[in-house]
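Quick note —
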Amino acid sequence: MKKYVTGFLFSNDARKVVLIKKINPQWQYGLFNGVGGKIEANELSVDAMVREFEEEAGVLIAREQWCCYAKIHRPHCYDLDVYFAHSELAFNVRTMEEEQIQIFDTQALPVNLIPNLKWLIPMALDKQADFSNPVLIQEVDGPRVVA
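Predicted structure written out below.
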């Protein structure tokens, strides 16, 4: 089972969010997603989030700033830990690899989003939610469908 992280860096006022335009895997090509990647062997999830964000967006967000608010399990496929953080460093992000890093208004997200971002981003911004324990989400087993 592969293990991944993805994260959303919001500006302090939560009006902006950093996203990455995906090239791989093929089913994500041309869609925007959170910044993240694989958790390496013997690496803690939060440390993978810090590392991946710095590698892909050029900004170091300390591990204490990241909040793991959801865990998504897709049977026979992957586990994904979903994080968010708030920092004005969102305005300092830059593309570091092939996939383009961009910053968007949280009220005007692009239409070409990974489908679950349509509810994962608002969920992260819900000030009434208690994320002391991440929300556990079980995805449907089967072929990946992108609407």
